[in-house]
Amino acid sequence: MRILALSISGMPHRWMDIDRAAYYVATDKVAWTLGDPAMILHGGTQRTSGLRSELVLPPVIALARSEAMVRHAYAIPLGRDDNFLLGKRDRMICAYCGDRILSGDLTRDHVHPKARGGKDVWTNVVAAHRSCNMRKGCRTPEEARMPLLYIPYEPCRFEHFILSGRHIFADQMSYLAHRLPAHSRVETAGMW
Questions:
Q1: Hey, what CATH class is 77-154 in?
Q2: Domain boundaries, the chain
Q3: CA-CA distance, 120 to 189, in Å (whole number)?
Q4: By the 8 A CB rule, do 167 and 1 touch?
Q5: Which of 145, 143, 103 lies closest to 127, judged by CA?
Q6: Whole-prediction pTM
Q7: Among 39-43, 71-75, 170-174, where is mean pLDDT lowest?
Q8: How are the residues of the chain apportioned to helix, strand and coil, as percentages rounded to the nearest 5?
Q9: pLDDT surpasses 70 at 190
C-alpha cells in the first residue's frame, strides 16, 4: 500500500510508503489531504488516560512547504526498463497489427529507428509484438509498409502516476483520472 504525495499545488510528486507518509502526517508537514482513511496506525497507550494513540493516513496528502518541488522537472523520463509502462500506455495493443500483446511478447519499437538517429523518448516509441518489431526492422513504418495504428505521445505526470501505481485506492485514482488530458489512452475504467 502506498500513499500519493502531492505538491502543495496538487501536482503529483511521488508514491510514498506507509512509514514515510506517517512521518509527514505525525510531524504536521501535510498541508491538506483527500479521501477516506487508507490506514489507521495504532501506537501505545498513555499511562494517565489509558487511551491508545492513533495516526490516520489518508490516501492522498499534499506536502506542506513543498516549494522545492516547484523546481522539480515534470518531464517523464523513459528508462530502459519502462516497457511495462509503455505497454500500459498503449493498452498492450501492437501499434502495427492491432492485436493484443502478451507480456512476454512485448517489445519497444522505435518509430524512427535508433540506428538511424531516432531517440529513445516517449514520442518515438510504441508497443509492438516481437514479430512485428522484427518485421519492421531498421525501417520507418512507411518504408516497411506497416502504418502506425496510433500515435505515440509522452504521458503527463497524472498518467505516469496511474501507469506506475499498483493497487491504487479509489480516492487516488479519482484524483489522478479527473486530471487526464483528453488525448490520454490510459485506461482507468476497471482499475478502481
A1: mainly alpha
A2: 1-74+156-192, 77-154
A3: 29
A4: yes
A5: 103
A6: 0.73
A7: 71-75
A8: 25, 25, 50
A9: no
Q: Which residues pair with 93 in a beta bridge?
A: 100
pLDDT bin (cut points 50, 70, 90) of residue 192 is: very low
With 0-12 / 13-18 / 19 or more C-beta atoms within 10 angstroms meaning exposed / middle / buried, residue 52 is: exposed
Interatomic CA distance for residues 61 and 29, integer angstroms:
10
3-state DSSP assignment of residue 163: helix
Q: Are 94 and 128 a contacting pair, CB within 8 Å?
A: yes
Give the model confidence (pLDDT) of 110-148 as tens digits: 999 999 999 999 999 999 999 999 999 999 999 999 999
- Residue given cell 510531524 in the structure block: 27
Answer for the pair 89, 185: CB distance below 8 angstroms, yes or no.
yes
Length of the chain: 192
Record the cell numbers describing residue 37, joined without a space. Answer: 482513511
How far apart (Å, rounded) are the C-alpha atoms in residues 85 and 94? 14
In whole angstroms, give the CA distance from residue 137 to residue 140. Answer: 8
Contact 126, 185 (CB under 8 A): no
Provide the grid cell at 41: 496506525
